[in-house]
Amino acid sequence: MVERGPTVTSPVHDDSRDPVLVGPERSTSPAPTEHRPLLRVTHLQCNQALVLAVAGYVDLVTAPVLRRALDLAPATSPRLMVVDLSEVRLLACAGLTVLVAAHRLADGHTCLRMAAERREVRRPLELTGVDRILSVHGTCEEALTAPHRRCGSVLR
């Protein structure tokens, strides 16, 4: 059973400034102007696990939004927390820093896992070696069902 929790959002993004994408299945005309947050983090309760569904851009401007969402999570004392990065379009250094800090804070209390399938997210995790510190899985389902072997790892 999945229960929807609070959603944390960043300042709005004006799509009218996005580059126009051109290709076989893409329109050459810009999309209608739409305002949406640069980053959205939604808390979802899934059995005994807490899933933070992250969507948008995680960079210097929006990393505090992710940090706030992660800071709220321990209040529920989840045994397992999955940060689902499947809808993240950009993961910059500031976002990596927030994820590593969350790993440190979760030490011993909560098993923290990442779900990262997109290249835009996996590549920064791999290039920086953060994927060797965090428990990174391809999908949210894999992260929810994986054995608990990496939950006790400590970053010093």
Tags for this model:
156 residues; alpha/beta; Transcription Regulator spoIIAA; six-stranded mixed β-sheet; two-stranded antiparallel sheet; 4 helices; 26% helix; disordered C terminus
Report on this model:
The protein is of the alpha/beta class. It has a domain at about 45-150: STAS domain (Transcription Regulator spoIIAA, 2-Layer Sandwich), CATH 3.30.750.24. It is built from four helices and eight strands. The strands form two sheets. It has a six-stranded mixed beta sheet with strand order 1-4-5-6-7-8. Strands 2-3 form a two-stranded antiparallel sheet. Strand 7, helix 3 (about 120-130) and strand 8 form a beta-alpha-beta unit. It is globular. The termini are far apart. The model is unreliable at about 10-35 and about 150-155 (pLDDT under 50).
- CATH fold-level name of the domain at 44-150: Transcription Regulator spoIIAA
Overall morphology? globular
Helix amount? 25-40%
Give the termini distance in whole angstroms.
Answer: 36 Å
Concise overview:
The chain is α/β, with parallel strands linked by helices and 156 residues long. 26% of the residues lie in helices and 33% in strands.
Which SSEs are present, and which pair or pack?
Elements lengths: L1 E8 L2 E3 L20 E3 L1 E8 L2 E10 L4 H10 L7 E12 L1 H14 L4 E5 L3 H10 L6 E3 L2 H6 L11
Parallel strand pairs: 5-6, 6-7, 7-8
Antiparallel strand pairs: 1-4, 2-3, 4-5
